[in-house]
Amino acid sequence: xxxxxxxxxxxxxxxxxxxxxxxxxxxxxxxxxxxxxxxxxxxxxxxxxxxxxxxxxxxxxxxxxxxxxxxxxxxxxxxxxxxxxxxxxxxxxxxxxxxxxxxxxxxxxxxxxxxxxxxxxxxxxxxxxxxxxxxxxxxxxxxxxxxxxxxxxxxxxxxxxxxxxxxxxxxxxxxxxxxxxxxxxxxxxxxxxxxxxxxxxxxxxxxxxxxxxxxxxxxxxxxxxxxxxxxxxxxxxxxxxxxxxxxxxxxxxxxxxxxxxxxxxxxxxxxxxxxxxxxxxxxxxxxxxxxxxxxxxxxxxxxxxxxxxxxxxxxxxxxxxxxxxxxxxxxxxxxxxxxxxxxxxx
Length: 346
Known about the structure:
This protein is mostly helical.
C-alpha cells in the first residue's frame, strides 16, 4: 500500500465512526429527508459543514494543509457548471432510490443494513463505468483572466461572486448554517431514539475533517475511491488480457474507504447498533439498490464530488461548484422521491 495509506485508514476510521454516531447513514433517515418527513439529515449536514469550515481555517493557520476551493466540473455542453449540475442531479436520483450516498453506504455495510451490499455493488459498477467512459466527458474549465491583475480565476468562490471579503462571506455562511440547524431543531426536534442529537453528530463529522487534514493534508471525500477502484479494475484487465504493463493507479482514497468501514464496524460492535430491517424501516429492493448505486457513483464523479466532498468540504471552502452540485443533488433526490411516491413506490 502507499506510504500514506495508514494515515488514510486512520482518517477513514474517524470519519466512519462519526457518520455512524451521527445516525445519518440510515436509508430511512435519508429517504424521509427527501420526503420532508425527517430533518435529522439536514441538521447534521449543516452542522458538519459549519464545523468543517472552521476546521479548514484552523488547519490552514497551523500549516497542516493549504486547502483550495474546488474548480467547476464541466462537460462544456451548455455551461461551465454543467458537470456539477448533471452529476449532482444523477447522484440525487441515486440517493432517493437507495437511501444512501457514496459515503453513507459504508456504515450501512458495516452495520448490516440489507440493501447496502447491493448499493455497493452498483457503486462499484458505476466506478468502473466512469473510469472507462466517464472521464473522457470531463473538459478543462474555460478560465477567465482578470483585466486589472491578469490573474486566472480557475476556482470561483461565493465571495468572488458577491464581491465581498472571504472572511465576511464565511461569517455569513456560518450564521446561515447555524440558523438553519437551530430553526429546524426547534420546528422538528430530534426523535428520542437517536444516538446523538443531529447537531452534535454533525459537529463530530466536522471534527473528522480536521483529522483528515492533520493526517493526510486532504479534505474529506469518498467518491474518488470508486473511481480509483474502477481504475484498478481496468489496470488489472489491461495487464491480464492485453499484457500491457503500467504503474498501478493510486489507492489512497480506497484506503480511506477501508478505514471508514472499520470505524463504522467498530462503533457498531461497541454500541450494539441496529442494522435496520426493523418495523418502520425503509426496504430497498435489489434492482433499485444496484441501479441507484450506479447513479450514485457515476453522478458523483461527473459532479467532481459527493455529499462529503462537496457538502462537507467544498461548501466549507465557499466553492461555487460545490453549492451548485449540492443544490441539484437534493433537487434531484426530492424530485425523484416525489415521483416514486406518486407511483406508489416510495
